[in-house]
Amino acid sequence: MGGVTRTIDWDTDAIVIVDQCALPAEYRLLRLRTVDELIGAIQRLAVRGAPALGAAGALGVALSARTRGTATEAIRADAERLATARPTAANLRWGVERALAALPGGADAVLAEAQAMLTEDERVNRIASRHAADLLLELCARRPLRLLTHCNTGRLAAVDWGTALGVVWHLHAAGQVEYVLADETRPLLQGARLTAWELAEAGVPYRLLPDSAAAAALARGLVDCAVVGADRIAANGDVANKIGTYGLALAAARHGVPFIVVAPSSTVDTTLADGSAIVIEERAATEITHVAGTAVAPEGAAVFNPAFDVTPVELITAVVTEHGVFAGNRG
Questions:
Q1: pLDDT tens-digit map of 134-169
Q2: Cys staple from 46: which of 41, 144, 159, 261, with CB 3.0 to 4.6 Å?
Q3: How many whole angstroms separate alpha carbon 7 and alpha carbon 45?
Q4: Is 36 a catalytic residue?
Q5: 209, part of any domain
Q6: Could you tell me if 37 and 176 lie in one domain?
Q7: Is the pTM for the entire model greater than 0.90?
């Protein structure tokens, strides 16, 4: 797919990312040479997805360490700015803190740790998605499977491979996918722009649908299983994911369709007892009031634009990580 193997990587003196704001019209690589450039890319969603953000956080610390040398406090200040660039995704701070722990060994040690995390990301997500694919084959009797997904959870959301779409790659290779229904995913249409692009690249049959049509697809019996990713998982198994996930889970529960969450264990935040304490990022009003720079709402329209919502564990059939089904602390 495309011109490079990884969605985010290190090359000589810069972080190289696939610019996800340019897709699907253009496959474009960006070289980020400063922490400020990386933070800007994170905030405008040129790099996004929980696992990819973990890698971005780690590489950002490496970039700072190589730039600032022995200025430890300045590096730690850069690390904190990176960690808070997007508040909901647990992996961003996890990646920052893991790389920062290598700082006493110097800049080369930080970079080595960050690069090890890149390799680990693909391995972990392949394992997690394999576990989830096996679970789906146990839960769903119909063959081949008809899957519904939300937002983008493929290799663009990770260093490589992906989480929920990683399940699709496993099942498609085994001839077990009839089609994927991909929600367009408001407000930035990551499903339409990114998931559809990945599915087309992989040759997986798919149909794109408005978020508001997902419940209708479930009601009409067009879906065997819903499978999504996660940006933060509380200790009890509550899941924060892209806005619209909660509504999808409600509809899946109403129609008796399994609802599976796939994520690396780094997405689990054991400091939070449940999802009520998860900070939900709110995005700019213009992401709703404008499309491609053109106003589609009256000037001055008030907007509620949360980037994520929280799905309670009671609506989730299983949360699956590289360690298998996450039981959580449900007591």
A1: 999 999 999 999 999 999 999 999 999 999 999 999
A2: 41
A3: 13
A4: no
A5: yes
A6: no
A7: yes
